[in-house]
Design goal:
about 600 residues, alpha+beta, Cytochrome p450, 2 domains, four-stranded mixed sheet, two-stranded antiparallel sheet, 16 strands, globular, Cyt_P450, iron ion binding, heme, iron, Cyt_P450_sf
């Protein structure tokens, strides 16, 4: 019921009846014939030449009347009785005794069915979606999931730790859900090696809330997120180019050593004061990538350059929220912390894309006819001239170039610099290991001599320490997700097409089947009885199979030159009163230690 104000006149197709709230008093003003109860025609605004100038009021009256009749109807109370209308004589007709009235909703035989029909439709749709996302036949067992949301709430904080718990309960192959997206987790080295060696498991997830279709760099572009023929073409080109530019080339080693000397000088200038090396270290490593792809370097203190590397670090930290936004896209519809971070990552992508485009523009303007320019950009531009095509489109275009540069820059910077930070953490926790590395360097090469790539065979313990840092640091604990491109049969299970496949490297790197006392930091596990370097099964810091890290060779050279020379030059110490633990870290697609400060004590 709706209460109407007094003196409101509503004309209906039938009799017009005013009823007070209690139903005691009724005013019936007329009939549906256009006459009153006395048979007198009702003329609202006069007629003829004396027609009221305010005849527009009749239009207003009709609009109000029609709207009311369409949705509502007035009915008399069961006790109401008809009576003559009462009014005062004069120029204006009005109710002599205005009364309250009750306006009842018009009842239709269909009105009561609308809500049940809507609810039924929603139930049918949700049931269909739920059935579609259920575990198919022979899908691996796994933890129970919330309909439409999956296991997302169980993976807050440090997902790899929770996934390790599920691995212990459900086995080396188990299934879960990211929203309605099917996910299969592989926690065994041999099964993973077999699966990732297959073309059917080489796909990528082409959904992203950060790099959506409207992004300046949409998903599916570049080296990491592309798939199919586009990925094969550019991976083959990238591997060939990086091999030609890096390994076996003196200029690449000289570039890395120049950056090593720069960071060592910066650390000497701290003069024994506590210092957080992250920014300087990240910029030094990033400069190696800049030299490789752009043919130039930046000053370590350049604010523009520091902002660039910071944007990359921010986006890597935000990446884990992309899964949240894909699982529950409605979080992007209203202000909240996830939406804020996703939108921030989108802005960062735009800024990074513009930087890449500007570097391309400058490179084109300065490279000229220098056919010996040793950088990725020049090699790409030369390849572009061949007119290679994928699916009828130019394979080597500016957007794909921007995507490739972005992937090389981001992956090559964050992973290497973070591994070096992990080395510092483990050396603080294991000072005896640090002393043994320094003793090996002093005995085999000499404290005063800069270490080069040719010294690696003479420093097996130092190499073993680097490998153990990679194992214990678990830099990319869940790898880069793959997606099945067709149905896959694996160990008696079926992995349906378009299923997300996660490599549980976090578990593999601490699996007692491959590692004795896996929780212990012990570099000697990578050495045989003759102190020769080993590469045991179960060690996959660069992933494995067709989509293994294409920069592995360059990363190994960088890690050796940076870590060995840093420990040659400095003894690492904690500031007084401070502590540092490898258990304190920030979890995302890349695990990084919590921020820390160290004292870098020069050894000479």
């Amino acid at each position: 019921m709706y209460d109407l104000p007094v003196q409101l006149i509503v004309r209906l197709k039938g009799d017009v009846v005013l009823v007070n709230k209690s139903g005691e008093t009724v005013r019936q003003l007329g009939t549906g014939t256009g006459k009153d109860f006395m048979g007198t025609p009702i003329q609202l605004n006069d007629a003829g030449k004396g027609l009221c100038l305010a005849n527009i009021s009749q239009g207003e009256f009709c609009l109000h009347d029609d709207a009311a009749v369409h949705y509502e109807a007035m009915t008399a109370h069961k006790t109401a009785q008809a009576s003559e209308r009462q009014h005062c004589t004069g120029n204006t007709l009005y109710l002599q005794q205005p009364t309250d009235c009750t306006f009842l909703r018009w009842k239709s035989k269909f009105a009561g069915m609308a809500l049940p029909l809507l609810i039924a439709a929603v139930v049918v749709i949700l049931t269909f979606l739920w059935l579609k996302s259920r575990r198919p036949k022979k899908f691996p067992p796994g933890p129970p999931a919330i309909p439409f949301l999956g296991n997302i709430f169980s993976l807050r904080g440090k997902p790899a730790v929770k996934i390790l718990e599920w691995k212990e309960k459900y086995g080396d192959i188990f299934g879960m859900f990211n929203g309605r997206k099917r996910v299969v987790v592989i926690s065994d080295f041999y099964i993973l090696r077999k699966l990732f060696g297959e073309e059917a498991a080489s796909g990528r997830v082409l959904q992203s809330s950060i790099r959506d279709k409207d992004s300046s760099l949409p998903i599916g572009i570049g080296l990491i997120s592309s798939q199919g023929d586009l990925w094969k073409t550019h991976r083959r080109f990238a591997l060939s180019t990086l091999r030609d530019l890096g390994m076996g080339k003196n200029w690449m080693e000289d570039t890395i050593i120049a950056e090593v000397e720069g960071i060592c000088q910066a650390l000497r200038e701290t003069k024994g004061k506590p210092f957080n090396p992250k920014v300087q270290l990240t910029n030094s490593v990033s400069n190696v990538i800049c030299a490789l792809i752009f043919g130039k370097r930046f000053e370590l203190t350049d604010p523009k350059f520091s902002r660039l590397t910071n944007l990359i670090a921010e986006n890597i930290a935000i990446l884990k929220l992309d899964f949240v936004a894909q699982t529950a896209p409605f979080v992007l519809w209203f202000p909240n912390a996830v939406r804020t971070q996703i939108f921030k990552a989108r802005r960062n992508i735009s800024a990074l894309t513009e930087f890449m485009k500007q570097m391309i523009k400058e490179h084109v303007a300065t490279s000229g006819e220098n056919l010996d320019a040793p950088d990725y950009l020049y090699a790409y531009q030369q390849e572009k001239l061949t007119g290679a095509k994928t699916d009828g489109k130019e394979s080597f275009n500016e957007l794909q170039l921007v995507g490739s540069l972005f992937d090389l820059f981001a992956a090559g910077t964050e992973t290497t610099s973070t591994t070096i930070l992990w080395m510092m953490v483990f050396m603080i926790e294991n000072p005896d290991v640090m002393e043994k590395v320094q003793r090996e360097i002093d005995d085999k090469v000499g404290r005063q001599n800069i270490l080069t790539n040719s010294d690696r065979p003479r420093l097996p313990y130092t190499e073993a320490v680097i490998l153990e840092v990679q194992r214990c640091g678990n830099l990319v604990p869940l790898g880069v997700p793959h997606q099945s491109r067709e149905d896959i049969q694996l160990e008696g299970y079926t992995i349906p097409k378009d299923t997300l496949i996660i490599s549980n490297l976090f578990s593999i790197h601490r699996d007692p089947r491959y590692w004795k006392n896996p929780e212990k930091f012990d570099p000697t596990r990578f050495l045989d009885e003759n102190d020769k370097l080993l590469r045991p099964d179960g060690f996959v810091p660069f992933s494995i199979g067709k989509r293994a890290c294409l920069g592995e060779a360059l990363a190994k050279m960088e890690l050796f030159l940076f870590i060995a020379n840093l420990l040659r030059c400095f003894t690492l110490e904690l500031p007084k009163g401070k502590t540092l633990s490898h258990n304190d870290y920030q979890s995302s697609i890349v695990n990084s230690p919590d921020p820390f400060e160290l004292v870098f004590v020069p050894r000479f």
